[in-house]
């Protein structure tokens, strides 16, 4: 599905802009067809581009129904790469804004991405999101 990402940073920028624009095809454009995702929400695991697409459609439709724009920021970003494989870990902040730009809420998450370079383009082959758990309550810490 990749459209041609010359470096890992381009993949991350595409992720951010696709989420903000709620553009499913653009979101999928940096994913390998056999992507494997471990998620913190609902099904916890998505295997292959068709399951990833279903998840993205549901997520973006929910944002549209709610009338929010979601800004994504990566911080504490670490990228390790060689010629054909890359490993990324970071904190991710999702901030929901209304149409006038007012921040409504935000949450933080931890992400790990595995990327592979094929045909001179970087694609996500694995994504893992996680939350630390409060041991007293058993709830995720956002």
Instruction: Work out the number of β strands.
Output: 6
Q: Which fold name is given in CATH as the topology?
A: Nuclear Transport Factor 2, Chain: A
Shape: globular
Rounded to an integer in angstroms, the radius of gyration calculated over CA atoms is 15 Å
The total domain count is 1
Structural class: alpha+beta
* Overall pLDDT level: 93
- Cα(first) to Cα(last) distance is 31 Å
Organism: Virgibacillus phasianinus
Protein name: DUF4440 domain-containing protein
Domain SnoaL-like: 8-133
Quick overview:
It contains three helices and six strands. With 142 residues, the chain is an alpha+beta fold.
Protein described:
There is one protein chain. The protein is of the alpha+beta class and 142 residues long. The chain has one domain: Nuclear Transport Factor 2, Chain: A, CATH 3.10.450. The chain is built from three helices and six strands. It has a six-stranded mixed β-sheet with strand order 2-1-6-5-4-3, with helices on one face. A hairpin with a 5-residue loop joins β4 and β5 (103-118). The radius of gyration is 15 Å and the shape is globular. The N and C termini lie far apart (31 Å). The mean pLDDT is 93.
Topology:
Layout: H1 8-21, H2 24-28, E1 31-38, E2 45-47, H3 49-66, E3 69-81, E4 85-97, E5 103-118, E6 121-130
Parallel strand pairs: 1-6
Antiparallel strand pairs: 1-2, 3-4, 4-5, 5-6
């Amino acid at each position: 599905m990749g459209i041609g990402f010359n470096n890992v940073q381009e993949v991350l920028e595409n992720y951010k802009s696709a989420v903000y624009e709620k553009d499913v095809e653009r979101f999928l454009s940096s994913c390998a067809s056999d992507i494997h995702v471990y998620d913190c929400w609902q099904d916890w695991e998505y295997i292959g581009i068709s399951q990833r697409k279903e998840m993205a459609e549901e997520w973006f439709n929910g944002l549209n129904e709610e009338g929010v724009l979601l800004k994504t920021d990566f911080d504490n970003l670490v990228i390790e790469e060689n010629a054909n494989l890359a490993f990324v870990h970071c904190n991710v902040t999702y901030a929901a804004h209304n149409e006038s730009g007012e921040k409504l809420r935000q949450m933080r998450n931890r992400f790990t991405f595995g990327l592979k370079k094929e045909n001179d383009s970087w694609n996500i082959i694995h994504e893992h999101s996680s939350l630390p758990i409060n041991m007293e309550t058993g709830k995720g810490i956002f």
